[in-house]
Amino acid sequence: MALLGPSGSGKSTILRIIAGLEPAEAGRVLWQGSDLAGQPAHRRGFGLMFQDYALFPHRSVEENVAFGLQMQNLAKAEVLERSRAALAQVGLTDFARRRVTDLSGGEQQRVALARALAPRPRLLMLDEPLGALDRTLREQLGHELRHVLRAAGIPAVYVTHDQEEAFAIADRLILLNDGRIAQQGAPAALFASPASSWVARFMGLGNLVQGTVLTAAPLVLHTPMGEIAVDRAVGTPHPGETVWLLVRPEAAQLKAGGGQNRVLGVVDDVTFRGATYRLTLLCNGVELEVGVETPPQVGSILPITLNPAGLLCLPA
Q1: Which domains, from first to last, does the chain contain?
Q2: Which segments of the chain have a pLDDT < 70?
Q3: pTM of the model
Q4: Which three-class secondary structure state does DSSP give residue 60?
């Protein structure tokens, strides 16, 4: 499960409350129905992995992984067995004797994960574990991390502010805004049906245009671009109500001729995105972002048709 949200939304605070490092001002933390209030952090059996990894620079990779096990006063043979098993889980068996200062950032991340896995925690909590890495390495390690967590069979709570990272790793998302749950569910469900304009805006799901409901059945909105027919809505919009129209980039299609949901846009900017180009169009004062394969000239006027299936009406 990923806790996703902007900085200051309460993600790390919730993690620390679960871990027993901070008291909750209200509410309860339950584990299989049992209240953990008053139970110290070291007795909860939870593992915690921080963004900076907190590795010991004077110890080898294996010694770092073994540290938590030694604090549990386990026999040397068991410490060695668990340490090597954890290193094998993260693909670092051949790195056991190396100093952590000789490792790359990605390798250090794996050592920190092995150290968290070695005590076999009931729950593993990860606080922005990939935040210090570059984008390419984050994507690579994100997929590896998902595989390791699934193979270990340990439930995990993962804190991040990166939507793509959360989508790639999590089975379930809890989206936080100012300490409150804005929406929760499977990543695909949140992507398909954001509960509010804030959710859609934070997750970068498309263009948001304010409008007014003209008719509810069929649903037609009055917007600065004109009258727009919409197939789906969150809640039950009523005529005269102010709403937001979510226009996903794939819903805006370059298409000449008349018909429903046709608008004209002036090309204001063209950005190269690899396989496609992202256009910023001005449609009667409204900005729309559209993906195309062949870039037009800035300043040209393009006919756009908005596919009702790619539109969503959201409450204001």
Answers
A1: 2-192 (3.40.50.300), 206-315 (2.40.50.140)
A2: 132, 256-258
A3: 0.81
A4: strand
